[in-house]
Every structure is written in C-alpha cells, then in structure tokens.
C-alpha cells in the first residue's frame, strides 16, 4: 500500500500545473457523481416506500 501511494505521489509531482488542476477537477467530479448517485438512490427508495 505504501508503495502504491508513493508511486502516485511521484507521478503527481511529475505533472505540470495544468495537468494537476485537470486531474484534481476530474477526481472531484467523480466523487461528486458518486455522492449524487447515493443520495438519489436514497430519495428513490423513500418515494417507492410511500407508493409501494
């Protein structure tokens, strides 16, 4: 696991400023999509409980 994290840090350090921003923005959007997906599943299950 430590080698994995170290490898990611080394690759991240090798990127230029624009590539870092794009990478961080991409990761942020992926995480945001998962949060929205989880919340929508919870809301959908509540709606189905009321009608079902």
Summed over residues and divided by their number, the pLDDT gives a mean of: 89
Terminal Cα span: 46 Å
β-strand percent reads under 5%
Order of helices and strands: HH
Number of helices: 2
Largest sheet: none
Number of strands: 0
Q: In one word, what is the shape?
A: elongated
Unreliably modeled segments:
none
Rounded to the nearest angstrom, the radius of gyration is 18 Å
Counting helices, strands and paired strands, the structural category is mainly alpha
Proportion in helices: over 70%
Overview of the structural elements:
The protein is an all-alpha fold. 90% of the residues lie in helices and 0% in strands. It has helices at residues 2-13, 17-51. The protein is elongated and about 55 Å long. The model has no long low-confidence stretch (mean pLDDT 89).
SSE inventory with pairings:
Elements: H1 2-13, H2 17-51
Brief summary:
By secondary structure, this protein is an all-alpha fold.
Summary keywords:
single chain; 52 residues; mainly alpha; elongated
